[in-house]
Specification:
Layout (H helix, E strand, L loop, with lengths): L10 E5 L4 H12 L3 E6 L2 H10 L4 E4 L5 H15 L4 E4 L15 H28 L4 E2 L1
Helix pairs in contact: 3-4
Length: 138
Amino acid sequence: MDVTYDFSKKVVLITGGTGALGRMLVKKFIDSGAITISSFNGQKEAEKLKIEHPKVELIKMDLLREEQLLKTIPQLVQQFGTINILVNVVGGYLGGKNINDLNETEWDAMLNLNLKSAFLISKHVIPVMKSGNGGNIV
């Protein structure tokens, strides 16, 4: 059974939309009528995503730099009116390494990418959602 939802007129921000899971979510939200924005870091992957999904809006963001988010989130709100849904997909793992082979710097980098990024973007999107009619964070 294929469940579909109508996200017409909803603004969705997906962090990590250029990865495998993110790409699938970009497609689903676009197909459901949402204005879909994907953050990216790598230009090559962003270009591939735009070719696959021409309706996606791309925004280069370093999710670990709060000062950048302080500028970027208001720009998105100015351009799109609001952010209704935030989907935190960005993440990563230093593949091929056992935990006992990781050093503290590598561990911290993974924690920052997987946790701190979600914290920082959520911190700055929540006020946008509160000022409107609420929203959802995944």
